[in-house]
Specification:
about 290 residues; mainly alpha; four-stranded parallel sheet; about 5% strand
């Protein structure tokens, strides 16, 4: 049964209340892919931070509600893998894709070439096009990762707001201002920020990200490093599918929005090739189908 939006959740899928919440809107690729992949209710919540916030709020009160977000710039492999382990074990309701975004799973020349809309013998040509695109944008993407890393570091809660129990340190203007200016937490933060934003640190983060992207190779190579999983995929996937060099014109589908229609038609058709569906998709489907049946 195809997943639905809206209505009473108990009326969907034979009374199952299992729901997966995703990023995006009604016309997003996340909704299209997961509605056609899964046999449970799928809902959208907008931006990633919305999904994560609701997941935190729901974790103890809505046990049949699950959440999945793009990996984006969460480059910590351990965090991503822990989310999968805990999700499978039922210890968390929030899952991070192993790749940067859901479209990244379709940047697979073998998978793409199985589409009925793909022209003959395009697998190698698609591989060359993906690598050429990645080589053009590699250093932009690495700088994006570095900036997001330092930005996220500075968002962390590093100092507590004073409370009434500490009133003696804030009983008049002079004492309050002295306490504020002499705060060891603030001065430590100034030192740490200065160090974190130093050229030496930026170079170190850049080299670390470059290593993660291209592995031990001196430049980007197919099968080396994690560049294919970490780079943005939305624009490239759309360009590949809409290139007549690789894909024939797709038939019209009145159920799909006009925006990126051909991309959506091809993706929807590809999901019918179960033997080639990415393993992460299969694992997610197994886990949620099992919980729906309980």
């Amino acid at each position: 049964m195809k997943a639905k939006r809206g209505g009473n959740s108990v009326e969907v899928n034979n009374g199952s209340t299992v729901t997966l919440y995703v990023e995006g809107n009604a016309d997003s690729m996340d909704m299209l892919i997961l509605e056609n992949l899964l046999d449970i209710r799928v809902e959208y919540l907008g931006a990633s931070y919305n999904v994560r916030a609701v997941a935190e709020a729901f974790k103890n009160i809505q046990p049949a509600s699950y959440f999945i977000v793009d990996r984006d710039h969460f480059i910590d492999n351990e965090k991503v893998e822990e989310s999968w382990k805990s999700f499978v074990e039922g210890k968390t309701n929030l899952l991070y894709w192993r790749k940067k975004e859901i479209e990244s799973y379709f940047l697979d020349p073998v998978f793409l070439s199985k589409s009925i809309y793909a022209k003959q013998s395009v697998e190698d040509k698609i591989r060359e096009a993906i690598l050429k695109y990645a080589q053009k944008y590699i250093f932009l993407h690495i700088v994006q990762y570095v900036i997001v890393t330092i930005r996220e570091e500075n968002k962390k809660e590093w100092i507590k707001i004073p409370r009434e129990t500490e009133l003696s340190h804030y009983e008049n203007k002079t004492i309050a201002l002295e306490t504020l200016c002499k705060s060891t937490k603030i001065n430590d933060k100034i030192d740490a920020t200065s160090e974190n934003l130093s050229q030496e640190r930026l170079v170190k983060l850049f080299e670390k990200s470059l290593k993660q992207f291209q592995g031990n190779a001196e430049c980007l190579k197919w099968g080396e490093g994690e560049w294919l999983s970490l780079m943005p995929a939305k624009k490239l996937l759309h360009e590949l599918i809409n290139s007549y060099s690789f894909f024939k014109d797709a038939e019209k589908d009145i159920e799909l929005s006009k925006e990126n229609r051909k991309t959506k038609i091809v993706i929807k058709e590809l999901l019918k090739h179960e033997e080639y569906i990415p393993e992460d998709f299969k694992q997610l489907k197994r886990v949620l189908s099992d919980r729906k049946s309980k």
